[in-house]
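Subject: Protein record for review, amino acid sequence with backbone structure tokens
Concerning: The relation between a protein's sequence and the shape of its backbone.
How to read it: Take the token row as a discrete description of the fold.
Enclosed: The protein record, placed directly beneath this head.
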Amino acid sequence: MRKLVVWLANIDSSRTRSEGRKISTGLAVRDPTLPEVQKAAEHLSLGPESEDVQYPKDQGHETRTPGRVLLEKQHTKHKTLKLLCDEIRRIRQAKE
């Protein structure tokens, strides 16, 4: 199966598009963590493999959201990012 790379910067609402965000701020989540994305991907049955690496645009800078997750490609990247963000919001609400 083909893999899809999701950087935490892609779904971080505190970043701009030029800093790596791929979806609108209304759909993105604030300061996602690697364990949250991993758990959300597991709930969506996307076969996640996480790596704690630095986003390429952040090389040589202090990074806010280090990490990426490799997922099995079942949808387009945009749809996958929206699904992940929705699931992260559900996980965060359940904790409260």
